[in-house]
Task: structure prediction
Amino acid sequence: MAQSTHTTISVPTFGQPTPVISVNSWIVWLYRLDGSVPFNGTWADYRDGFGNVAREYWLGLEKLTQLTNNGQYRARFEFKSVQNESWFSSEYDSFQIDPESNWYTIHVSGFVGDAGDQFNYMNPNGTQNGMNFTTWDSDNDRASEINCAAATGKGGWWYNNCGAHIMTNPFGSKWFFNRWLADLKLATDSKLDGVRAMIQRV
Ligand SMILES: [Ca+2]
Result:
């Protein structure tokens, strides 16, 4: 696992520099390694960001949309298996988040990596590319009977019905998982023990 450093970034409509963790010049927007920060936030929490760079954090959807609509960004997702404590990663050449008026829909393309095409699952119900963001208090997913966030561990995510991986549910729960790790036989248990998600301007 590469060395991480602390730095700040500037986001167009935010006056103050935003503290973030950087790894090899990637900007980390989701950082979870020990479960010390709850990720059961509301829509407003996920929009505005929460946690802190000294522990764990979610940068916030508003900052992600402003960054990725003011430049070309690529993305990297890292998953630590609970089973063998190994890290696996997936990268995308292109990563863009729509504005709040379109529910912060996610768009990724150009996959490379050893952890599978995370947002384009082999089963259409699991594909999260092109999905809206959902929190337990704002149901924008494709599961008609349930709110995927409320029905799992209250983590906000780009749920479909509901999806192949969720990076925001509680540590130790079966809903903090990555189905690709089992599909690709990287682990027989798909539960996770740590995640990082990051972007880099192209
Ligand atoms: Ca629903």
The chain is about 10% helix and 30% strand. The two ends are 22 Å apart (CA to CA). The pocket of calcium ion is lined by residues 139, 141, 143, 146-147 (CB under 6 Å).
